[in-house]
Amino acid sequence: MFIEIESNSDVPIYLQLAHQLMEGIVRGELKPGDSLPSVRAFASDLGMNMHTVNKTYHYLEEKEFIQIVAKSGVIIRPSGIPKATEEEKQKLEAQLRPIITEGLVRKLSEEELVEMVRKLVQNIEEGKE
Amino acid sequence: MIIALFGFILLFITILQAFMPKFLKPTEAFGVYIPDSHTKDSVVIKLKNTYTTVVLTFGMIIFGVYLWWALTQNPAEETLALVSVGVQFTTLFVSIGYYFMMHLRMKRLKETQGWLIGKSEVRVVDVKFQEKLKLIPRVLFIIPMFVTIGLIIYTFMKYDQMPEMIPTHWGPTGEADAFSKKTYFSVVALPLILLVMQGMFLMMSEGMKFSGARLNPANKKASLVQQLAFRKYTSLLALFITIGITLMMGYFHLQTIHPEISSSLIMWALPLTFLILTFAVVGIYVIKVGQSGSRLKVEENSPAIENKIAVDEDRYWKGGMFYMNKNDPSIMVEKRFGVGWTLNFAHPISWIVLLVPLLLIFGISFLL
């Protein structure tokens, strides 16, 4: 699975990395138990500081998408990622709220916003941009 | 014989240096990153061709003068060896000097024509690169080292039987022409040097695991296949040379302990065979594989995306030759101008890896 990082983007690199790995999980390119590169190997391939990769891994570990195991390295959560709990759903909603609000302020209709989400889901699943 | 040998090496260096642009990735010209959309620009091609013509012409003149001098002036063996090495270095320095002029021209061209403007620089990583990477197993590099250690132990066991003067240098005819007094150090100096060299090749092969892979966003799949193959063949080349030097130096050493197995024919033919084989293998490696596997034919599946280019790393390449990037944890990196590997000199460990084996080899030779 290929990952693409834009070096001149406004999105911090550690977040770009995390988003791309999450998309890989969605598409099934990264399956439960799959190992991810070591921090050093990943940073070497990126030509970036190891700190950046560390930050990504901790971000994903906090969300319980990956496990950082002392000996075997970094793996995608072996038991698979469970459906969001009520609490996690609320958290996502809270994060989405300002974005939806901005859309509404910009005079987007409910339909247009729903269509936007549908298209995004499709693109993520198909690996399109 | 010596003239033929040195002449052959000189010719090899000249041709390799002159045609160097042909063995490199099209996206790197004279140590400068060139986006895919400009690799076929007539200016770029013209600069490469000019370089080849100039280096080849100069090299051939030097080669001709050298042959004429060596064949008609009947120089003494010492003078001949000295001049031969001098001529090789001159050819190298001239080609490097001319490379540097081209490097500056290319850099200016890229800036003035704004090749990067409006493009988005993208870094591509294959998450499974390490899993896909197939190198020669470490153990195959370690076995020859154990052979050497065995040789050292065996030497100490046979210490009393050894001659009072230990040969340390052999002339072109295979006869020893320099000796050292027998001590516990001088009897094992040769296998110790061998051990250092074996260690270097082990590190070279293993180091590729810790070297970042640069994939081209315009053809991800092809550059991935080429990268993986390049590393595999580099590892194979390192193994070939390790086995070669082990056999050669091992025989040299054993025949000091057991003069009865010594044969001046083998002493003469073995290094020559090794040298010619090494040149042949390196030649195949350069022509068939090329830098980063750029000469390997790969079917291209993914279409080129015009506005996406690789991250421009020119600022980390001093003179287009020396890589210094503190952030990148890679120690070994692929050369930009040349086939093979160089080091990330921003890390102290690179200096250690480079200097310690050299100091050890020089130290051992000096103490003899």
UniProtKB/TrEMBL annotation, chain A:
Q: Which UniProt keywords apply?
A: DNA-binding, Transcription, Transcription regulation
Q: Where is the HTH gntR-type domain?
A: 11-79
- Kindly give the InterPro entries that the UniProt entry links to this protein: Tscrpt_reg_HTH_GntR, WH-like_DNA-bd_sf, WH_DNA-bd_sf
- Enumerate the Gene3D superfamilies for this protein: Winged helix-like DNA-binding domain superfamily/Winged helix DNA-binding domain
Recorded hits in Pfam families, A to Z, give: GntR (PF00392)
Q: Where is the signal peptide?
A: none
| Listed GO MF terms | DNA binding; DNA-binding transcription factor activity
Q: Does the keyword Transcription regulation apply?
A: yes
Coiled-coil stretches: none
Determine if Transcription regulation is one of this entry's keywords: yes
Q: What's this protein's name? A: DNA-binding transcriptional regulator YhcF, GntR family
Which organism's genome codes for this protein?
Psychrobacillus psychrotolerans
